[in-house]
Amino acid sequence: MGAEFVQLSLTPILIGVLAAIACAIPGNFLLLRKQALIGDAISHVVLPGIVAAFLITGTISTWPMMLGAAGAAVVAVVMIEAIRRLGRIETGAAMGVTFTTLFAAGVLLLEQTDTSSVHLDVEHALYGNLESLIWLSATGWTSLWDPVALADLPPELTRMAVTTLVIALLTAVFWRALKISTFDEGYANSIGILVKTIGFGLVIVSAVAAVAAFDAVGSIIVIAMFICPPATARLMTNQLEHQILWSIFFGAGSAVAGYVLAGYGPLWLGSSNAVSAAGMIATVSGLVLGIACLYAPARSRVTASGN
Amino acid sequence: MTTTTHPALELAASDGRTADSDKDVDRDAGLAGSALAVRGLTVSYGTKPAVFSIDATVPKASMTAIVGPNGAGKSTFLKAVLGIIPRLSGAAYVDGKPLETMRRAIAYVPQRASVDWDFPTRVRDVVTMGQFRGLGLLGFIRPAHRKKTLDCLERVGMADFADRQIGQLSGGQQQRVFLARALAQDAGLYLLDEPFAGVDAATEKAIIDVLKGLKAEGKTVVCVHHDLATVTDYFDHVLMLNIRKIAEGPVSTTFTGPMLQETYGGRLATAHIDQLKLD
Ligand SMILES: Nc1ncnc2c1ncn2[C@@H]1O[C@H](COP(=O)(O)OP(=O)(O)O)[C@@H](O)[C@H]1O
Ligand SMILES: [Mg+2]
Q: Does a structural domain hold residue A171?
């Protein structure tokens, strides 16, 4: 457990952890605003955006894809709002219509075009390629201090690290306004907080998290991490500040545990094939949520109010 | 789907404009002496007007009740005055100046049921929200802020509950916490939406005592109020609404049988406007 771990497992685990944290932080607010499905919607609409970017540029280089994905996210937000207003239906339904339609469009685009030559397919979209994000030039833990080896880190890691850091910083800076407007939007508005801007900013930040995470880890993890760690964290505490920390802990923990289980679990069970790390990470986060529902301290809040 | 404004609303809006320019002098005279003045306020959800061309003037240091049946647009009126929901037309003035420039002077207490009390936070955190303007986005919560939070809780009799989870409060306690949050703003004008709805007698007493204290300090209190039996006890000024303004003035001369009849009995007006929507 030295050189090989650093070379093959360290970077995928770190990327998984960072992706989980980047999605979990805004996920807390989406959950409390009863907009958790926005994370779902965004991660679905990212697909057609990426395919469109590929069709236009003909390569799978990162920036066009990120732009395509971000563009699709904006289209989705506008579409949801338009359907809601014109159709006079509630937000949840508008989101459902939007993300299934756009995801289906993405799948159609994929099948109709010759993207099979590059590694861009539905499976990739769902599961990402976490296992392939290895650090080839690493020779052991000492590589962490070796500038030459560091220069060869997978770009996904740097991108995910920067994204997560920016999200954490934005959350800290706008904490107070975010909290007040999430708890009581009307009141927040009355004291001059720009609640529309805050709400839109939250969706944008979620979209950025989803897009950055999507490329590395696929939409399964993105969807799971927007919802499972925050929901689990909510069951652990009755204080938002602590809830955020718990959600980071559960997100990161699921990423590590899921990655390890995916790699070694089947071996322990006597099978020779590893299973998808992304699928396992999402499964672990769901299982943790299930356990929390049964045993977590703040789960029975309605009964707690009686004493 | 039609996106055009309903003809009736356009009519009202233009009516308002003409009336405004004709009575500019009157209007400005009213503005200066009032704590809150509303002019030509119309709000609509879709094509159905919820509040229709309302003028109202709230005297300084008054206790003003807003009364009207369910769905009369009382909450809508408050929210539109505050700019929380968009106005189709109209404007609001505080101490004669546009409300948008006077936010510091206003404290709003929303309807208790408008928030999710399962939100993960404590009583003291909610009251601290009232000091947002002083704290800003990143200001540190200093001992002075903590003291202020506790003082405000003390005034509503909730100091012992500072560290309590808000989900564990009774309805009356929730209402007092909301009032404490408004007190923490040190405002001159308090706008409260049904502060007495569904609260116990002790809470009702605690709240009315605080509100009367505010009035005694020269502050202005406006409450949406549902309990007609207490209007004359608690308030000195009244605004009677049912989508349109039915009446406004001192409680003694305005809060009368015929006016109540018109406000509450006259369902016809509502039904009539509902029908307009259909054609
Ligand atoms: N967000 C909304 N969307 C659509 N209609 C609304 C909305 N809020 C209130 N209404 C409608 O507007 C009317 C006035 O509501 P409201 O101001 O809450 O009345 P009140 O506070 O006097 O009971 C009601 O008919 C209500 O159904
Ligand atoms: Mg109301």
A: yes
Q: Looking at the domain assignment, is residue A174 inside a domain?
A: yes
Contacts of A187 in chain B (CB under 8 A): 108, 110, 115, 129, 181
Q: Does B47 touch chain A (CB under 8 A)?
A: no
Query: Can you tell me the distance from the alpha carbon of A78 to that of A98, in angstroms, rounded to the nearest whole number?
Result: 10
CATH of the domain at A128: 1.10.3470.10
- B87/chain A closest Cα distance in angstroms: 14
- Give average pLDDT by consecutive 10-residue segment, chain B, 279 residues: 43 42 50 88 90 94 94 95 94 92 94 94 96 88 93 95 93 96 96 94 95 96 93 94 93 88 65 35
Q: Does any domain span residue A36?
A: yes
Count of domains in chain A?
1
Any chain B CB within 8 A of the CB of A174?
A: yes
| Helical residues (DSSP H) of chain A, grouped into ranges | 3-4, 11-32, 36-57, 62-87, 91-112, 122-127, 147-150, 155-173, 175-183, 185-190, 195-236, 240-268, 277-295, 301-304
Sign of CA dihedral B264, B40, A196, B96: negative
Residue A304 lies in a domain: no
DSSP A276: P
- Taking alpha carbons only, the member of A240, A111, A110, A117 closest to residue A171 is A240
Q: CA of A172: which chain B residue's CA is closest?
A: B138
Could you identify the atom of ligand 1 that is nearest to the CA of residue B194? Answer: 21
Q: What's the predicted TM-score (pTM) here?
A: 0.85
Confidence band for A213, pLDDT divided at 50, 70 and 90:
confident
Residue-range definition of the domain harbouring residue A72 = 3-138+155-217
Instruction: State ipTM.
Output: 0.85
Where is pLDDT greater, at B82 or A200? B82
